[in-house]
Design goal:
The chain has about 425 residues and is α+β, with helices and mostly antiparallel strands. The protein has 16 helices and 13 strands.
Length: about 425
């Protein structure tokens, strides 16, 4: 399975992932743009507005009706943050036409429908519909406020915000409540037009499909034809930031359990070392056999949860632990001990083997889900690399204990964030 790319025009790319593993076809459109404080909230609300209707599909109810007529096609949209970019995501899933009672070109209809949703929205008086704006601003406000509902996820998010403060990655992907009052139907529509004229556009189709026919369907679509060529404006490389001396930030709120998040910076990495980072992270806290899980959680019973996540695109690792508030210092000291043990090489070949097995099993599972496969290839597209699954596995297998210990020397604690009562 591979990503077969065709440039429709500069800044607009069609991707066909041919697979016969599914009875569905999945279409996805991604609009990638720079994360910026000025535009992050406007971008956050745009998918919510676009799903409300198009020039020919009058409302969200009409869109739902059309999807039902397409044998229950599924539609979804949202926002993501990839490196220092904000990605607006739109998906439409249809049954493969071969499995219908009478074979029909349901895929073309799905492509046309999704492209109409994204690029031909419902407009009144050269603006978005006013009543749509008010209702969707309220929904976005609830979504932004809801980030505090999951306290562990909130602590991890706040750690990232503090660590990357005053850089694009420190921005919350959905934006900020204080921006909502200044957004109206006119200025949001003007922003939308600017966005689709400047952003990187990627259209993915996954399924048992005819590649040439799909590319032709996309390139001849009137909503694609009306788009201008562009030198897309997005961050191809992550923006450097100056790491801090180890610092501690404590935030108090109404919680019964403490939530500890630790941001680690990895400095001076080469491209190949990023694969070493995946193995390092798995041994430290990325698996059920990791040091954090086995020592902090199981052996010392200091944490309800203890894990770490490696962000390759940011050269950083984030540790998260749910703990009793009075165990804060004990837990922090024990975590620091595990980080030091990695520097000293206090891990075994069995630890390395287990880490590699876990990583490779995840990589091998990517083709099992169409949306995961598309996300994998989008990440490669934005990073401007091409890495087949088997080559990825080879890079992981090549990692040695010496590589991991050398990687460990480049790991520094930047930000310690503790959410407590």
């Amino acid at each position: 399975m591979e990503d077969n790319k065709t440039q429709i025009r500069q800044g607009i790319t069609a991707h066909v992932i041919k697979t016969n593993s599914f009875k569905t076809d999945l279409i996805a459109v991604f609009l990638t743009t720079k994360l910026s404080r000025e535009d992050v909230t406007k971008n956050g609300i745009i998918p919510m507005i676009l799903r409300k209707g198009t020039s020919t599909i009058e409302s969200q109810e009409e869109l739902n009706k059309k999807l039902e007529e397409m044998y229950g096609a599924g539609f979804d949209c949202g926002i993501d943050k990839t490196g220092d970019n904000q990605v607006l995501k739109f998906y439409l899933e249809t049954i493969d036409g071969k499995y219908l009672p009478q074979e029909e070109d349901l895929l073309k209809e799905g492509i046309d429908t999704l492209l109409e949703v994204v690029f031909d929205p419902k407009i009144e008086n050269n603006a978005f519909k006013k009543d749509y704006i008010a209702s969707q601003k309220e929904k976005l406000k609830i979504l932004i406020e809801g980030r505090k509902d999951n306290k562990m996820a909130y602590a991890n998010l706040r750690c990232q915000e503090e660590m990357y403060k005053d850089t694009p990655y420190g921005l919350y992907k959905y934006g900020y409540i204080e921006d909502l009052e200044g957004i109206n139907e006119q200025n949001l529509y003007e922003h939308y037009k600017k966005l689709i004229s400047e952003c990187k556009i990627d259209v993915f189709v996954s399924g048992d499909v005819d590649e040439q026919k799909i590319v032709e369907n996309i390139s001849k679509n009137p909503n694609i034809q009306k788009l201008n060529e562009r030198e897309p404006i997005y961050n191809k490389k992550d923006i450097e930031f100056q790491r801090h001396e180890e610092r501690e930030i404590i935030e108090k709120t109404d919680v019964t359990q403490g939530n500890l998040a630790i941001g680690l910076v990895v400095e001076g990495l080469g491209k190949k070392e990023k694969y070493t980072g995946s193995v390092y992270n798995s041994i430290l806290g990325g698996s059920a056999t990791s040091k954090l899980f086995q020592i902090v959680r199981e052996k010392h019973s200091l944490a309800y949860t203890a894990a770490s996540n490696y962000l390759r695109h940011k050269n950083s690792i984030f540790i998260k632990c749910g703990i009793e508030i009075e165990n804060y210092q004990k837990t922090l000291d024990l975590i620091k001990e595990q980080i030091e043990d990695m520097k000293k090489g206090n891990f075994t070949e069995e630890d390395i083997k287990s880490a590699k097995t876990g990583i490779i099993s995840v990589v091998r599972a990517i083709p099992d889900e169409q949306d995961v496969t598309i996300t994998y290839f989008l990440g490669q597209e934005l990073a401007e690399v091409k890495m087949p699954y088997n080559e990825y596995e080879d890079r992981i297998e090549e990692v040695t204990k010496e590589d991991i210990q050398n990687f460990a020397q480049k790991v520094y604690i930047d930000t310690i964030f503790f959410l407590r009562n």
